[in-house]
Amino acid sequence: MPKLSVIVPFYNVQQYAQDTLRSLRANARSDFEFILVDDQSKDETPAILERAADELSDVAQVRYIRHEVNGGLATARNTGLDAATGEYITFLDGDDWFAPGHCAELVAAAEGLGCDFVRTDHVQTNARARSVHRVPVGRRDEVLDPRAAILPADRTTSVDYAYAWAGVYHRRLLDKGLLHFTDGLRTAEDRPWIWRLHREAESFAVVGLLGVFYRRGVAGSLTQIGDVRQLDFIRAFDQVVEETAADRDAERLLPKAVRTYCAIIAHHLSDESKWEPAVAKQLRARSAAAIQRMPQDALGDVLDTMDLRRAGKLRRLRRRVTTAKAAA
């Protein structure tokens, strides 16, 4: 069994793939497994990966898998999870990169702490600018209860730091069915995933490693494009709320799930200029419907404690649906 499986989905990233692959070589060990998943790229990415898989096989175990149909990031990661054989699992996106030796440090931290999963800080890059982003957990290098780290509802917590690649996960989580993503989600795929981990895993820890570099502002990235795929955040958060409502601690945890959902809706509504006109209309309609689906008692409490600007946007949506129903 390899010590670590690194799952790396790629889609139309020919400009950045070489940086990503060089970083894998700088992290290679004979007991590490690199799983390269091409999600039906239309550019030169597949040719780059074919060459890289052959070259990397000299220093690590490598699998190259190509999708026949584009399925999105969640589906590509699931393909990698289905193929992974490592004792530990981590992720990297095809336009990001690791610092040399980062994977070995991840494994050493996980083995030293002995918990289900370990989360790390990361470096965000945008052109030449770099900034450090930290896991919103104050206690470092000690084993903690993941469920306890979901709250408090009115603060940024560990479930808001949803980056799958910012950590390492023991195989027992995969065997328990906790590491797969919701198939077909095109955006916000990390949100139901991180909530499930925190509700159902038994232990986690946070360490101060800064070895993963997250590239922002990439042309073609879903975070930069206002097309209909971004509306998958609604499907993702519907799942978060539904699963949390069925949890044994639903009364305590639902306010956090609803508050986060509301904050994301308000964020997208505040920047409608980035959306295609037809998609902006869908955003308003689907957001209004989402507000109606939320547990209304929890929603009322959230709106009463949110800042006036965001709460005002959401209340107007809520009233619009209520008025339309009354008129009908």
Structure description:
This protein has helices spanning 17-25, 45-56, 73-83, 102-113, 171-175, 190-200, 232-245, 250-269, 277-293, 296-305, 308-327, and strands at 4-10, 32-38, 61-66, 88-91, 97-98, 117-120, 122-126, 129-133, 167-170, 204-207, 212-215. The strands form two sheets. A seven-stranded mixed sheet has the order 3-2-1-4-9-6-10, sandwiched between helices. It has a four-stranded mixed sheet with strand order 5-11-7-8. β1 (4-10), α1 and β2 form a beta-alpha-beta unit. By secondary structure, the protein is an alpha/beta fold.
In short:
By secondary structure, the chain is α/β, with parallel strands linked by helices. The chain is 43% helix and 16% strand.
Largest beta-sheet characterization: 7 strands, mixed
The first-to-last residue Cα distance is 62 Å
Structural class: alpha/beta
Element-by-element helix/strand order: EHEHEHEEHEEEEHHEEHHHHH
Fold blueprint:
Blueprint: E1 4-10, H1 17-25, E2 32-38, H2 45-56, E3 61-66, H3 73-83, E4 88-91, E5 97-98, H4 102-113, E6 117-120, E7 122-126, E8 129-133, E9 167-170, H5 171-175, H6 190-200, E10 204-207, E11 212-215, H7 232-245, H8 250-269, H9 277-293, H10 296-305, H11 308-327
Parallel strand pairs: 1-2, 1-4, 2-3, 6-10, 7-11
Antiparallel strand pairs: 4-9, 5-11, 6-9, 7-8
Quick tags:
alpha/beta; globular; 328 residues
